[in-house]
Amino acid sequence: MVNSAARGRTAQSEPDFVARAEALAEGFAARAAKHDREASFPFENFRELSEAGLLSLTVPASHGGAGAGAKYAARVLGIIGKADASTALVLSMHYINHLVMARGANWPAWLSRKLAREAVEGISLINALRVEPELGSPARGGLPATIARRTETGWRLTGHKIYSTGAPILEWYLVWARTDEAEPRVGQFLVPAGLPGTRIVETWDHHGLRASGSHDVVFDDVVIPLDSEIDVRKPSDWRGPDVAQATVHTVFVAAIYDGVARAARDWLVTFLKHRVPASLGAPLATLPRAQEILGAIEARLAVNARLISSFAGDFDDGAALSAGESNVIKLTVTNNAVAVVEDALSLTGNHGLSRANPLERHYRDVLCGRVHTPQDDSTRLALGRAALAL
């Protein structure tokens, strides 16, 4: 049955969903350190997100969701990211796929409705599984080793995916694979979780985002229906990026790590106000050096807020955006976020790196922002080549 928060949500304003996220954030933040230490998955966070109607935030209103665009989704992800970056990352991938579903012509309408209904009615999440041990990130080029073999009754899928964020809770995998045809095609196949031949290998033991459940998923001759083929094309047809997907991916990733930086900033402010070294006889907050560094932090966060809000708003308004521009947003915001946490550490010394304090976790988490596609070197290389008209 549809939960009480889901009923009538389309009649409520988008700011109401921001308020719901803020109400949940305190509990998420209180549990974050334990999940980080244990590398345990925060199932309870997603139960609460579902009860609050936030799993269907980007599901179209016509399908019972909130119908929120990128701007409000980014605000929610920033709030959740500030509380627990691992939860926010899993949620962001779910949001991205529902936004793309709603806008994409390649998704069968009946299938979009089915996944939308499930997200409205319960805890049903989706993520794209693309990265492989040999291939690395598909953004760097190359054909996937995961193979879909067509039979008279369905596709048979065999392959190995790594960094499958949210693996313990996902109900749907959007698997990047190639066909075994004479001229292979490449694309996405929709696979329900838990089918025979599917197994999750708990490999995720990472420096940051330890509670994201980004384990390996292995497919061993998994049978899926023929209509599970979502968007499969010639490899040459994938050379141009999906601008809609690239845009929301980069702005959502940026929002998460900006949230982590804001959590670090808040902890730093409290620390500076209450830390009174005997040699100083006054709070660290009274030192001009501390005030100046905190001012630099505020400047970076102000830039981040403007970039995320304006870019996501432009996307919602249908402005003509480029994948290159969205990559610059991600590069700028995530590097600002890393710099914010590094500045906080410069003022706190051993206190900031103690596991008794959250700043060291924020530092480990924020460094993961550089790993997400597109990586900084790819963005800078593309910008340089464009400037040189190469």
From TrEMBL:
It holds the Pfam family Acyl-CoA_dh_M. It comes from the Bacteria. CDD domains: ACAD. Residues 132-222 form the Acyl-CoA oxidase/dehydrogenase middle domain. Residues 24-95 form the Acyl-CoA dehydrogenase/oxidase N-terminal domain. Keywords: Flavoprotein, Oxidoreductase. One of its GO terms (molecular function) is oxidoreductase activity, acting on the CH-CH group of donors. Residues 254-373 form the Acyl-CoA dehydrogenase C-terminal domain. InterPro entries: Acyl-CoA_DH_C, Acyl-CoA_Oxase/DH_mid-dom, Acyl-CoA_Oxase/DH_mid-dom_sf, AcylCo_DH-like_C, AcylCoA_DH/ox_N, AcylCoA_DH/ox_N_sf, AcylCoA_DH/oxidase_NM_dom_sf, Mito_Isobutyryl-CoADH. This is Acyl-CoA dehydrogenase.
